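anyone else get weird line breaks when pasting these?? whatever heres mine. first is seq + tokens for prot A
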Amino acid sequence: MNITIVTVGKLKEKYLKQGIDEYLKRLTAYAKVDIIELPDEKAPETLSDVEMLQIKEKEGERILSKINPDAHVIALAIEGKMKTSEELADTIEKLGTYGKSKVAFIIGGSLGLSAAVMKRADEALSFSKMTFPHQLMRLILVEQVYRAFRIMRGEPYHK
């Protein structure tokens, strides 16, 4: 299986990079995982609704340019469906079973995802009703993908 994580914004914190690198190393036994990091749009602290929309659209265009046309796209969005780790594992397993070996997870910038990205997404996934920094979300996502493969293989994992 080929998993791509398309994410907006640079990862600056060393401790997050170390955690992500650790899970990426563990994931090599299960899947090929690539992280595509896209620059975020620079924006002033206060934005009008029009400016927010323009920024999301520019970031959205960058995101869409990196998605493989054959990929099953899962957008991380607060309004998405919440799943248990077992349900995420089941989703990934079914995608592989039915010939969808390319999966793209999308993490937007601080303003969220554009309407065009949400339209391209095959599903929207929410990890919580809470808002997380997108850098931290990257670590949480790679851990959950790793956990999903452990669950699919019947291997032990922390509950």
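and prot B, same format (seq, then tokens)
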Amino acid sequence: MSNYRIKGETGEWEVVIGLEVHAQITTQAKLFSGAATAFGAEPNTQVSLVDAAMPGMLPVPNRECIRQAVRTGLAIEAEINQWSRFDRKNYFYADLPQGYQISQLYHPLVGEGSLTIEADEKAGIPEAKRIGIERIHVEQDAGKLMHDQHPSMSFVDLNRSGVALMEIVSRPDMRSPAEAGAYVRKLRSILRYVGSCDGNMEEGSMRADVNVSVRKPGEEFGTRTETKNVNSVRFVMAAIEYEAKRQIELIESGGTVVQETRLFDPDKGVTRSMRSKEDAHDYRYFPDPDLLPLVLDDAFVAECRASLPELPDAKRARYEGAGISAYAAGVLTAEVEAARWFDALLDTGAKPVAAANWVTSELFGALNRLGREISDSPVSPTQAAELLALVDDGTLSGSLAKQVFEKMLETGDTAGVIVERDGLRQTSDTGAIEAAVDEVLAANADKVEQYRAGKEALFGFFVGQTMKAMGGKANPKMVNEVIRAKLG
């Protein structure tokens, strides 16, 4: 259970959150036409006669859009409705040339499912929690109004008109901004693993409508507001926090929360009223007469299921089963590119725990420093495997491996080439190590006496001085053994 509460003048309040996530389906064409969907194209260059609602134009469903939506439903273990239907949602706006949106209200393609958000004590999520998903329906996007192109007129760009969207509707199961943030991140991760949406919130291919209400703990749900088109996890969390506090202040001052649509202003961190919330009957939904019901056969659903990759939860469990810590497994599976890179590293025979520790610390640290994504890593999984193998067989110590890795990043050379060229091989020559230890102990006779008198913390000093004397190339394990033997 979430322990998130907001303190008001009349006591503690609980926030109730549901999210409607719009995810643009990854296809080369729109839902009902063959027009392209590339981001950033010149206005009105990706518009077919169907998208522009020219008279007599009939929509034809894009099979790939339906397939991707079904695959997404299977990934959240949802019910797939093998009979579904498209409805017309009627409203009139300048960027909607048809005067209606083709959507699914009464008979969606995907029914109930769920996903689980992981426990995160630091974020205030004390235990893993299952978030119910009510439905996924497929619909077409509207166009876009551009208000900054002319001093007195708004321009219309229809490039997005007809783009295929999945609307993924959660149950009101979230009780804190942190839970909502974790839900969006997990859902985005699943979509990207499946390949049904690229999850790029900055480009608008994934955005959330945030439903928020407040209540005294244990009481009935309050009246909710819907904040539209929030396009980052951080903004989703900020919108919830602001809106919950606004509603509490309103109720405690004697006011009433009105069911309405609101917008989030990311610059000011506030929500603003947009319009009173329409009920479904205002849209005059009815079955689209131009489209037959969608009927999926068993073979189509089976093919969709067979095409799914290993999903984040299963991959995480596999990593933990190989001895990798829960934290590292979570980090490695959060983004599909990182998981694929790590799997390629494991495929070379690298030892899972050592590989996971190296990737999450050394590689991710370097990529962060360089401002690069793992898909653009200057070191390949094969090159990383060679470096890890040199550590495993004793050729390199941990500190030498760090030096070699830095040179790999700088030059693009492999670890083996760098070790031979720069003479960075670890020394396991007992005679050389003993000679260096003798010199260190002789030069620090006073500290040897202190150590033997009980100041055991000096042991690390002797190790450090020996490693320094040998240019960091001595085998640390052997150095420890020799010093311990000599100090008796």
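btw re prot B: Residues 320 and 327 are 9 Å apart (CA to CA). Residues 430-487 form a domain with the Arc Repressor Mutant, subunit A fold (CATH 1.10.10.410).
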